[in-house]
Amino acid sequence: METLVNTIMALSQAPDSLGQLVGYLKTAESILDNAQNNCLAAAQALDAQQHSLGIVYLLNAHAKRPNANANGAFTEFSAQFLRNCSAQQIQHVPEAFVELCHKFKEQLVGDPRAARGGIAPLLAALQRLAPSREHLTPIHADVLQLCLLAKAYNAAAPLLELELTEVDPARTAVGATDLLLYCYYGGMVATGRRQLPRALELFLQGLTAPSMVCSAITAAIYKKYVLVSLVHTGAVAPLPKFTSHKVRQLSDSADTKPYSDLAAAYSSKSSDRLARVAEQHMAAFNADRNVGLVKQVLASLPVRTIQRLTQTYLTLSLADIARVAGLAGPPEAEAVILRMVAHRQVFARINDRDGMVTFMQDPQQYNSAAMARRIDGAIRQCMSLASQVQSVQDSLLLDKGYLNKVVLRERGSGGLGGLGSAVDADLVFGA
Known about the structure:
3 strands, elongated, Arc Repressor Mutant, subunit A, three-stranded antiparallel beta sheet, Serine Threonine Protein Phosphatase 5, Tetratricopeptide repeat, single chain, mainly alpha
């Protein structure tokens, strides 16, 4: 161990020798495994900035111990290291750094208070690993998971507001599962923040990700997608045609049948039928830990029924509203309407003397300076996204591998008269 530490210190002094240090550490795995009991102490003796590469490997070796976090020493030191490590050094070993972040998170998931304390260190680690704010990394999902467990939804706001458009496995060690987990946890956190459109966007991004198989994560995303769709829009939109065939089959699987039945009951607009179906499948919803969302689905149907009434009636009694919406009586109808008014879901006035409800128009004229800024921001965001899409398209048109595939496909359909793919691609590139 002493030789290993001395080597780490010697090869960390100059940037030119970091590559040599990476090679040495990768071949020293057996030494680290045999000295697991001493790895944490060795890491603590090094400088977080100057010896980041070596500390990553030492902490990963220590984390393999059965009781790696005795007295909280591992998570305490790891949290300090993730805040202070050298971005230049850890970017040489993205896989090892991501592994450390995963192990750090795994030690915290059982305790909401500990989970809350791990959010800031992982956010710092994410900033050091990501080449830009638009890059997706495996640490994104780790941060969102801790935010969810700690119910610290606002801490995740900066991540949810970003449009992650860059994926670079070589520089961030990101994989397909990391994207799915980001969409899953991100959608759940957005739901917790009542940002249902953003939640649906993330769930849909996970469902439409290219895939040859349907994983358990994808199935879990689909179930959330169905429930949040019912809460937000009252219906489940069909998945886009470019969605993988395996994922599209989810709606017909036995595993998701309770959710399909719930959506069908919701479309009937019958509160009684919806309640019966929910009760019938409550064991499945409980096993999936979706009871809370199912309750929101049940509560949203009367709200949507009352919103439809505003399109037909100017005034209506609380008793009639309760009857049509499937509520227990006028007091419950009054409570629901008051909540809807508070959330700007309906605009109404209740006359306490005769129990009559008067529906009104939205007083917002949408001509304020704040609304103008909001529209301008949305337009700028669309323009930025369009520019990014154009950039990706331009890069594809210059990618020889992509053009080879296109030519092969066209040749198979006879579109190019049987010309060879390599010849055509070379012609495009001027080879």
